[in-house]
Amino acid sequence: MKVKELVCIGCPLGCNLKVEISEEGSMEVTGNTCPRGADYAEKELTDPRRIVTSSVRVSGGHLPCVSVKTETDIPKDKIFDCVKALKNVELLAPVKIGQIVAENVAGTGAAVIATKDIYVQ
Ligand code: SF4
Fold it and tell me: How many CB atoms within 10 Å of residue 72?
């Protein structure tokens, strides 16, 4: 049996999780205050994923860049590729909150959306 320790990122409480993994691969999670902690632990140890936040350049706007995030979580090992791909994106103002700024980022199938309005300067 293997034991892993994690901190749940599901909410600010940050519960300390202990995961016991049997030889057959079944998991028992303890330390979670709510069911989301067990879901997080199992996912983190089998298919870790994250929402990625970053920024993208904008020309002609009241600010030179806009904050963005992936619309859904993406595999953790694709985060670097996602951020790298966004370095090559440049938008033209105006940009609307929720606007798709990149499709299928880094081949993950996830879109990247703006999280702020940028007005024409
Ligand atoms: S287990 Fe539940 S209460 Fe604890 S950090 Fe995760 S989401 Fe929050």
Answer: 11
